[in-house]
Each structure stands twice: as C-alpha cells, then as structure tokens.
Amino acid sequence: MKRGIITILLALFMLSTYAALPDVTLKDINGKEVKIADLSRSGKPIIISFFSTWCKPCIRELKAIHELYPDWQDETGVEIYIVSEDEGQDAQRVAPMVNGFGWEYKVLLDPNGTLKRAMNVQNIPHLFVVDSKGKTVYNHVGYTDGCETEIEKYLR
Predict the structure, then answer these.
(1) What is the DSSP letter of 120?
(2) Whole-prediction pTM value?
(3) In terms of C-beta distances under 8 Å and separation of at least 24 residues, what long-range contacts does 59-67 make, across chains too?
(4) Range of 60's domain?
C-alpha cells in the first residue's frame, strides 16, 4: 500500500516537473506583450526567474547568474526571463534596477500574479530551467551561494 502511494506521488511529481509552459501573456518592461507558452519555441533552453525589487535573495541570485550568463549563452544559447512580482509603486523600480545592474535579461511584469499562480510559485526567488523542447527540467525556491552550479548542470 505504501509503495503504491509513493509511486503515485512520484509520478505526480514527475508530471509537474516536466509540465509545459502555461498559456499566459505578460508585458515586458517596454509594454510589449509576451506569450509565455511561446518562449520555448526557439528550440533553446530558457530560465525563468521570479523576483521582486525588494527581495535581497532574488537580487543576489540574479547577480550571480549575471556573471555566468555570457558563458551559458555561448554554450547553450539559453535565454533568461526574469519575472517581476512588484506591484504599484514598486513596479516603477524594476526598469531602473535592471538597467543599474546592467542585466541583459528579458524582463517581464506580473503585477497580478497570473504567471506566478499558473506556475505554482509560492515564494521568491523561484527559478525554473526549461529545456529546448519546452519542458521544465529543474526548479528551485530560495537562493544559496553556489546554486548556479546546479542550474548549469540542467542547462547542459
């Protein structure tokens, strides 16, 4: 009985880990609409990272990834999309912060939490690695120094 329950739970986990991207549309920081389900159609891996301007672990993670991003792009062609959960006045801080750090990420705004709910994001930072076929192959919540090594494994 226990073995059967564990098998079912493992199967459900695997299905959720390898789910396709949701059919949600967000705007980037320039006001252009971006359909999330289409992001993986490039045939390249992508990273989707949920953050807020006030979230210190989010900023630390995005800074650490920024240092490795050029190498990852050269090796895998990966594109990074960062999804701001900022609302109201805080949303006005997103573009200046991204520009101030010199991040070359594609920045999406999710002030109503539409994508956050669709991807079952409870806490930030929350990062997903999506393979070139559009399947989520890795995700983690929170940030600890050095977790970029784990991300890199899934990009390759």
Answers:
(1) T
(2) 0.84
(3) 60/143, 60/145, 61/125, 61/127, 61/143, 61/147, 62/101, 62/103, 62/105, 62/125, 63/101, 64/143, 64/145, 64/148, 65/148, 65/151, 66/101, 66/102, 66/103, 66/104, 66/105
(4) 2-155
Identify the CATH number of the domain in which residue 110 sits. Answer: 3.40.30.10
Q: In Å, what is the CA distance from 144 to each residue of 2, 83, 98?
A: 34, 19, 21
d(CA 52, CA 17): 24
Q: How many domains does the chain have?
A: 1
In angstroms, how far apart are the furthest CA atoms of the chain?
56
pLDDT in tens, 78-91: 999 999 999 988 88
Cβ distance 109 to 52 under 8 Å?
no
- Which residues of the chain fall below pLDDT 70? 1-19
**Which residues sit opposite 81 in a β-bridge?**
48, 106
What was the pLDDT predicted at 140? 94
Which backbone phi and psi does 85 adopt, to 5 degrees? -100, 10
